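Posted in: Structural Biology > Protein-Ligand Complexes

Title: Requesting predicted complex, 3,4-dihydroxyphenylalanine in pocket

I'd be grateful if someone could produce the 3D structure tokens for the following input. Sequence and ligand are given below.
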Amino acid sequence: MGIREDLEAIGAQLKEELASLEMTKALEEVKVKVLGKKGTLSGLLRSLGQLSAEERPAAGQLINKAKEDFTAWIEEKQAILEAKEKEERLRKEALDVTEPRDLPCEGAEHPINAVLNQVLDCFTSMGFEVAEGPQIELDHYNFELLNLPKNHPARDAQDTFYVDDNIVLRTHTSPVQARTMLSKKPPIRIVCPGRVFRADEVDATHSPVFHQIEGLVIDKDVTMGDLRGTLDAFAKRLYGDDIETRFRPSFFPFTEPSAEVDLTCFNCHGKGCKVCKGTGWIEVLGCGMVNPKVLEMCGLDPSVYSGFAFGIGLERITMLRYGIKDMRLLYEGDLRFLRQFR
Ligand code: DAH
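-- Reply #1 --
Done. Output follows.
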């Protein structure tokens, strides 16, 4: 067989192998087999020695030409394979930025907010409006207009944070009563939720910052019966139809008469248990008929108008509502606690 036929055979086989190749890695093997040092073309070159001096140049040229052709075929195939592999890699590595991933964990309404919203729903459905006042308050509104003049002994009970002689961090939401009476004409029906401050201990039932919801109704002929009915409706709405209210006489300078209100223990429904210390009742708020002195100081004629007011401790009713035993849990932001309200 002559060189030409050998080259044709090698070329034909190379073509066949190239056609069936799928990967650049395998291409390298094919390349080495033909063009490598121990490849078929090198073998042919070595065999040139056996040819006569006349035959040799032509045969050498044939082999060189074949080498060029083969190299070109291989490079062509390599380019095709590389392009294909690149495309595949890009397809595999492609990032779909619109694909939905694990969503961040869902938040929950804080129990204080949940109960606040229930209370506000309850009162707004009875025709109350929501009012607000400043947390940094004038002594005048926090005390004076509520019948707590300077040196009044009841001031001591409030552990006030004083900013200066005339400015305090409000110790209760009651100053919003005074502000409302001074700025609005009766009939008045408001609830005012908000933060209040007292120089108190921190323990399971006390915090220097806590929340109250103040209520105020002023109109002609408002009676204590209206107060009772309103608070009854509130208790049933928040804790259930079997919950009743009990009024106990009490004292607040801004109401006369005043009462503290107990609700049927939500835990034992009145039978007596640990939560209510065996009494069947739990104290939740203070209230009373707005003191005529307060009406007068706030520009309302007590012979024309009367009204009632109440102050609810939001932390307390939240703890009762959910059976939370330590108030500090409400402020610490511990996710294990908060997730339970999802
Ligand atoms: N302001 C009172 C307190 O902080 C709560 C209170 C009692 C508010 C009786 C009232 C009320 O409006 O009538 O302890």
